[in-house]
Amino acid sequence: MRVVQLNDLNDTDRDVTSETWRSRRMVLAKEGVGFSFHDTVIYAGTTSTFHYQNHVEAVYCVQGTGTLTNEETGETFPLSDGTMYLLDGNEKHTVQADTELRMACVFNPPVTGREVHDENGVYPVLAEA
C-alpha cells in the first residue's frame, strides 16, 4: 500500500512546472502499477496545447472553468468541475483556462517523471531504469 500527501511532493522531482501549468506526480512508472497519476493545475488565463502521441490520458476536472479544443476536428467542449475527457485517439488538444483548472490525470503507459514536452507538445516514451 502507498499513501501520498500532495503537499509532500512540493519542490521534489515529482513536482513539474511549466509557464502554464504545474503537475505533481503521485504515481509514476517506478511504482510498477501500469499507469501514472498526476494532480495538475493549469493557471488561470493561460492556453496550453498538448499532443500525447505515445500515451492515452484520462483527465477529470475537479475545479475551475475553461475550454477544451480538439485540434484535429475543431470541436470545443466546456470544462468545469465534474467534466472528464479521454484522449483515447491521441488527439492533439488545447486547454484554455478561464479560471485556475485543477485536473486529476491518468497516463498509460505511465510516465517516469523525466519526460519533457517537445516542440509539438509530445512526451516521449521513457523506460524506467
Question: TL;DR?
Answer:
It catalyses: (2S)-4-acetamido-2-aminobutanoate = L-ectoine + H2O. By secondary structure, the protein is mostly beta strands.
Please characterize this protein's 3D structure.
The protein has 129 residues and is mainly β. The protein has strands at residues 15-17, 21-27, 36-42, 47-50, 56-63, 65-70, 76-80, 84-87, 93-97, 101-108. A 6-stranded antiparallel sheet has the order 1-2-3-10-5-8, with no helix packed on it. The protein is globular, with a radius of gyration of 14 Å. It catalyses: (2S)-4-acetamido-2-aminobutanoate = L-ectoine + H2O. Its EC number is 4.2.1.108. Catalyzes the circularization of gamma-N-acetyl-alpha,gamma-diaminobutyric acid (ADABA) to ectoine (1,4,5,6-tetrahydro-2-methyl-4-pyrimidine carboxylic acid), which is an excellent osmoprotectant. Belongs to the ectoine synthase family.
